[in-house]
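Lab notebook, design round three. We kept the backbone fixed and only want residue identities now. Task for the bench partner: fill in a sequence for the structure below.
Input structure tokens:
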């Protein structure tokens, strides 16, 4: 029935052989180019398997004589699946007989009957039944109505699926079918192949059980309906994947017993006759395709895909489509000599829940695969087209991020150009611009310092909050770990308790099973004894019927002999009557002769008298006459005797002829009846042959019409699918373009936000650097103050020493009234006016060197200036080439003197 390959190397060898032999492959997609051998497996899990399956496939080829092919017990919901080839010369039929072996009446509800065409094309037969299984699905609802119901009495037998009586299976033709039944008690079912015209119920009593062949595909199994589910959803972002069915690993073969071989262990290698329901959940954000991929060899059958939409506008809606492989699509089977053939089973969106329904098709091979391929992998040109159609201005937008920054104008305190590098210590009652600048600088510096402190505090608070959050998270994690450990301990305790309960329940179930098996064995023994008793009674009834038939035959024979005796008696009676008539005729003849003699005597007397008268003349004449009369009398007597003998002979011949005629008529009647029966049988056979021929022609015409309609429907479906696929592709393209544009816009906005955040971070960094620089300047100013204080103290000491030696105005008298003002010269300082005035150009800085202020030594740059003694030059400040060079090269400077 199938050629299962348990090792993939065999399939790979087949693929290599196909490549060498030039096999024309039926592929909807080039699997090898998209990494077929790197696809991820999605192993299915068994959810449930129910109902009883009676499989009849061994012997697959039936001959030289028919008989019982398979038999088994069905109790409840069950299915009978047969698959056989007739190897006998004459047409035969498949017959299914149900037997009630119990002591109570049992009802059987026939829910569904399906049969394929009987044809030498094995793929066509298996494909036909696979299509009908999906087109006429079994109604599994509780209120489903059966096709018909049978009530089988105790020890009774009845035929089901009577349409098989009129379905001849010719030589070398394959015939397969399904019967789904529901019983109210145990029923023993037999599948037989018998000659046409034979009574199946009567033949079920005496036909022989045919031996199983080497494939061993027959017996009683549990699992006619199998529900499977892929537990790991298919993620479209992770590439291609596959679900493999019929490999005897994730999808194991069902086990059963052969009741015709004393319940020997058997396996349904291929799960033929099993109805599959396979669920595949998906997730991701990309459409994908579903492909069928035969892995074990040629496959020709049908599949139904039910889609539950869980995302988008069609959320909650379902779509159902049936796909047929082989036949109408121009090929006999898919996967001949290769593992890379494929057939598209539709396009779907990520998040859809796929439910596949199918039954492994007869004559096809397992295992098989269902491939799930993302659209970008199956059709990379579509993704490239979308990338090409991006607008040109997107790159410009992404290439010109938003840039911005704010410079805080913080400058040094000072006067005009002559005050460069020094602090104005002149008393003034009016606030100068330098003072305002100093206040602004102080405020800005304070703001920056406060902000820096606030940032530090905020960072500390955030760090503290983060640490607290991490500690809380660690605490919660520890609590969760302890709770998990506790839960694990409780789970283990519960599992141990549950295992103990299950063990006890299993022991109880095992005891109950053993008791049930014992009861069943006892019931089976009683049933066997009852069957033997019934067989004995049936044999006694048969012998009694034979005895009665023999008595009837003897009675008929006696009746026939009595009839023959009656005919013989009638013949004897006729002969007796003929003899009596002969004797009467003879007596009459004697009487006539006597009377004639008397008359002759009278005449002789008269003649004597006349003789006396004429003796001489009449004596001779009388004598002559007398002799002549005597001669005549003797002749008459002889004639009478001859007539009597002849009459007796004629009567005997007539009686014999009548008996022979009666016998000939009886033989002729019997021959005529036999001839009429033979002619009637021949006429009936000719009529049946004519009806079969007409039915076959009608079936072929109907099949051709159905095939034409199927091809037309398939073409229309393919056209509709192509149109729908194009529409979906256009819609998907439009959605992809919109999503891509939205993604680009989001990326542009994100880039702009990122650039703005970077700019803000740069601003904050620069502000922080300025704050640090200001802090360094403050430190330098503080150091300069300390140095100036040391210098002032030294000068004060020198002044006191000089005053002691010479009376001159004291240093304190010469000092300004603002004694608290720090008379410090800050090197390299720049004033606000210097920052705000135009920078000198080459034409504006062309004074002769002698017109410039002479260069001072480094020691002279830091000498104390007496504002009283040098009052006319109070607006000037020492000018050095270093200051000029700094002003020319660095504007604004990095350091701003404060104080």
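Proposed sequence:
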């Amino acid at each position: 029935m199938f050629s299962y390959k348990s090792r993939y190397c065999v399939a790979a060898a087949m693929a290599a052989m196909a490549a060498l032999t030039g096999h024309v492959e039926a592929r909807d997609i080039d699997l090898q180019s998209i990494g077929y051998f790197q696809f991820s497996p999605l192993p299915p899990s068994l959810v449930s398997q129910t109902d009883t399956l009676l499989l009849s496939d061994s012997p697959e080829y039936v001959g030289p004589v028919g008989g019982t092919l398979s038999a088994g017990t069905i109790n409840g919901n069950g299915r009978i699946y047969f698959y056989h080839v007739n190897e006998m010369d004459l047409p035969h039929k498949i017959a299914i007989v149900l037997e009630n072996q119990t002591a109570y009446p049992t009802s059987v509800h026939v829910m569904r009957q399906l049969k394929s065409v009987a044809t030498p094309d094995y793929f066509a037969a298996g494909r036909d039944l696979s299509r009908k299984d999906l087109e006429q699905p079994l109604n599994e609802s509780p209120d489903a109505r059966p096709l018909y119901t049978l009530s089988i009495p105790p020890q009774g037998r009845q035929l089901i699926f009577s349409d098989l009586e009129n379905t001849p299976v010719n030589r070398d033709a394959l015939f397969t079918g399904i019967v789904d039944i529901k019983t109210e008690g145990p029923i023993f079912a037999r599948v037989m192949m018998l000659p046409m015209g034979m009574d199946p119920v009567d033949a079920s009593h005496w036909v022989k059980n045919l031996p199983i062949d080497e494939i061993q595909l027959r017996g009683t199994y549990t699992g006619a309906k199998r529900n499977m589910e892929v537990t790991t959803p298919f993620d479209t972002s992770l590439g291609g994947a596959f679900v493999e069915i019929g490999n005897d690993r994730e999808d194991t073969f069902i086990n059963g017993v052969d009741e015709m071989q004393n319940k020997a262990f058997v396996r349904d290698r291929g799960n033929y006759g099993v109805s599959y329901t396979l669920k595949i959940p998906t997730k991701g954000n990309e459409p994908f395709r579903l492909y069928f991929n035969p892995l074990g060899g040629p496959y020709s059958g049908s599949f139904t895909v039910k889609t539950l939409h869980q995302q988008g506008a069609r959320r909650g809606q379902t779509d159902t489509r049936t796909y047929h492989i082989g036949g109408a699509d121009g090929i006999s089977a898919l996967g001949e000599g290769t593992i890379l053939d494929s057939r598209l089973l539709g396009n779907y969106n990520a998040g859809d829940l796929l439910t596949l329904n199918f039954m492994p098709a007869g004559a096809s091979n397992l295992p098989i695969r269902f491939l799930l391929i993302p659209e970008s992998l199956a059709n990379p040109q579509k993704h490239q087209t979308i990338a090409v159609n991006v607008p040109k201005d997107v790159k410009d937008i992404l290439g010109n991020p938003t840039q911005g920054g704010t410079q805080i104008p913080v400058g040094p305190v000072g006067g005009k150009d002559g005050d460069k590098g020094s602090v104005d210590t002149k008393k003034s009652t009016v606030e100068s611009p330098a003072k305002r600048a100093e206040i602004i600088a102080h405020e800005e510096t304070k703001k920056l310092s406060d902000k820096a402190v606030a940032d530090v505090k905020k960072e500390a608070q955030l760090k503290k909050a983060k640490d607290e959050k991490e500690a809380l998270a660690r605490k919660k994690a520890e609590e969760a770990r302890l709770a998990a450990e506790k839960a694990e301990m409780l789970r283990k305790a519960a599992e141990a308790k549950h295992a103990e309960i299950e063990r006890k329940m299993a022991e109880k179930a095992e005891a109950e099973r053993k008791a049930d098996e014992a009861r069943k064995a006892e019931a089976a023994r009683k049933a066997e004894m009852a069957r033997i008793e019934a067989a004995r009674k049936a044999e006694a009834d048969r012998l009694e019927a034979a005895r009665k038939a023999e008595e009837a035959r003897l009675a008929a024979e006696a009746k026939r002999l009595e009839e023959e005796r009656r005919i013989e008696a009638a013949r004897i009676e006729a002969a007796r009557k003929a003899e009596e008539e002969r004797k009467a005729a003879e007596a009459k003849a004697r009487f006539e002769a006597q009377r004639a003699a008397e008359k002759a005597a009278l005449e002789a007397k008269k003649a004597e008298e006349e003789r006396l008268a004429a003796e001489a003349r009449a004596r001779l004449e009388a004598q002559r006459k007398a002799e002549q009369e005597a001669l005549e009398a003797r002749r008459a007597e002889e004639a009478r005797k001859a007539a009597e003998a002849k009459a007796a002979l004629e009567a005997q011949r007539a009686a014999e002829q009548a008996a022979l005629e009666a016998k000939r008529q009886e033989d002729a009647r019997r021959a005529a009846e036999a001839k009429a029966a033979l002619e009637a049988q021949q006429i009936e056979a000719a009529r049946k042959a004519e009806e079969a021929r007409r039915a076959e022609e009608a079936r072929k015409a109907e099949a051709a019409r159905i095939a034409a309609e199927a091809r037309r429907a398939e073409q229309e479906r393919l056209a509709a699918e192509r149109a729908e696929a194009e529409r979906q592709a256009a819609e998907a393209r439009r959605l992809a373009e919109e999503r891509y544009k939205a993604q680009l816009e989001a990326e542009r906005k994100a880039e702009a936000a990122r650039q703005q955040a970077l700019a803000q971070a740069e601003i904050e960094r620069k502000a922080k650097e300025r704050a640090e620089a200001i802090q360094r300047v403050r430190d330098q100013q503080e150091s300069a103050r300390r140095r100036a204080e040391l210098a002032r103290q030294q000068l004060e000491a020198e002044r006191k020493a000089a005053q002691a030696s010479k009376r001159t105005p004291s240093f304190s008298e010469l000092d300004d009234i603002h004694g608290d003002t720090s008379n410090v010269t800050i090197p390299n300082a720049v004033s606000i006016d210097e920052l705000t005035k135009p920078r000198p150009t080459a034409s504006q800085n062309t004074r002769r060197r002698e017109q410039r202020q002479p260069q001072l030594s480094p020691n002279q740059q830091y000498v104390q200036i007496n504002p009283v003694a040098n009052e006319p030059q109070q607006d000037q400040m020492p000018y050095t080439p270093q200051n000029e060079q700094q002003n020319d090269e660095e504007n604004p400077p990095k350091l701003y003197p404060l104080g």
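Keep this in mind before ordering anything: The first strand starts at residue 40 and ends at 41.
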